[in-house]
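haha ok so turns out i had the wrong file open the whole time. this is the CORRECT one, sorry everyone. sequence first:
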Amino acid sequence: MIYAFNGYIPVVHETAFVHPQATVTGNVIIGRQVYIGPGAAIRGDWGQIIIEDNCNVQENCTLHMFPGTTVRLREMAHIGHGAIIHGATIGRNALIGMNAVVMDRVEIGDESIVGALSFIRADEVIPPRSLVVGNPHKIIRQVSDDMLAWKTEGTQIYMRLPGECHATLQPCEPLRELPADRPAQAAGYATWAESKNQAAAE
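then structure:
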């Protein structure tokens, strides 16, 4: 659902995928290979929202702002399910965890990771490669090379998702019985805890 507002028409690159159940309004610019999940609300009514290439904004996220403000997601920013970004800038290859809230004029440094359910108060500046958790937030350490590689791999999966959605996503009627030959889905990517355990075992 894409809406013009006060003469501003959203700009969406042809390689991006905006789910039909997401809502994009007004002064919004969406770059290459961006994934916007169902239930996301991206409201560029009072200010501009710029989502650079290879970002993902997952299910039920909200992007909005106070009047005259710009929200910017820099390249490969990864916005987890249910997160709220209000008038903030999210750095390149940063991750905002599920149901986190990032408030007005916050700057999240490149390659930072904000944990699920964290709250970052207005006007905070988070240095690059910070690991941030809590409500209110605390910077607990630097993001390690291993953690950054894990985050980057997860974002690369989302970078492939727009193409897969364009190629295969379609409305359908449900099956009434489970087919005997239904294939299993490959894992391919582990949680951070599983990744650490696997590395320790090796």
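The chain has a mean pLDDT of 95.
again sry for the mixup
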